[in-house]
Amino acid sequence: xxxxxxxxxxxxxxxxxxxxxxxxxxxxxxxxxxxxxxxxxxxxxxxxxxxxxxxxxxxxxxxxxxxxxxxxxxxxxxxxxxxxxxxxxxxxxxxxxxxxxxxxxxxxxxxxxxxxxxxxxxxxxxxxxxxxxxxxxxxxxxxxxxxxxxxxxxxxxxxxxxxxxxxxxxxxxxxxxxxxxxxxxxxxxxxxxxxxxxxxxxxxxxxxxxxxxxxxxxxxxxxxxxxxxxxxxxxxxxxxxxxxxxxxxxxxxxxxxxxxxxxxxxxxxxxxxxxxxxxxxxxxxxxxxxxxxxxxxxxxxxxxxxxxxxxxxxxxxxxxxxxxxxxxxxxxxxxxxxxxxxxxxxxxxxxxxxxxxxxxxxx
Length: 363
Prior knowledge:
With 363 residues, the chain is of the alpha/beta class. The protein is built from 14 helices and seven strands. The chain has helices spanning 3-18, 38-53, 56-69, 75-87, 91-102, 108-129, 132-148, 153-165, 169-182, 188-198, 241-256, 273-282, 299-303, 331-361; strands at 212-214, 220-222, 230-236, 262-268, 289-291, 311-315, 321-324. The protein has a five-stranded mixed beta sheet with strand order 5-4-3-6-7, with helices on one face. Strands 1-2 form a two-stranded antiparallel ribbon. Helix 12 links the parallel strand 4 and strand 5 (289-291).
């Protein structure tokens, strides 16, 4: 063997000997809260795959199974399953998962958080099935959570909503005031609670589900970032003839309410990105565009339970959700009233802010 070849082999062996030796049991270690048994890990990984594919119901079942296979101690399985259940409207599953989770809570703050989650799930169940018993159970869970951890601001908010649904308005107002005293973020939720105190009936109306999206031009939009505006959400696709027919009507609405607290967001369900972009260009859709790439299984379609199109929703300045249909003879007049109300609310806030500023300056 030539000397050069022997030298190359020698140095290659040195490099190999310097590398850490891998053992058969060297596998990625589970993160805190994830399942540890091999069987549970396999089910966990399968559930994560189903989440990526857009099948939350299968993923929920497998996450709960992974928790059982792991001896009922997989907090990450339960957390993900709970959140998926709420996102997909499976409030009954969410309540059951919160019950399972409570069984392994070790501290009062953990138990408080889980009683609050259970209260949240029961509250959603009350809205879904319109039954008083769920709101009463929800209120009981929130009350228990606050007894364990009185400093939880969001628990005061949830408790207030449950009490409002039970028409215990004074008690609800007290909880909303407690939330405002504990919440220092000046968030959209903070402003919403201020509106609840002005008009308690708002706490009994169906809020739009929370959403976060990125438009085709890279802008971030969410329910909370659009607070104070009337939002028209239109789900459509290029292959849907009634959807195409409604586009000029939407364009007219965009022009009519230009410069006022009103925004249209078109959510496209095409699987073919080129078809979507071609249609946007053809109809000059110069308002926020979002592509829900997985069609009816995409995040926005699931969030708003869209199973057929065209599907159009309005969200008023207080975040209240209402079904609409573009093309209705009454939609324009409805939007006029909603936008006028949004302007009235904004004007009232400006007056209040100016009065507060004047009062502060006089001190």
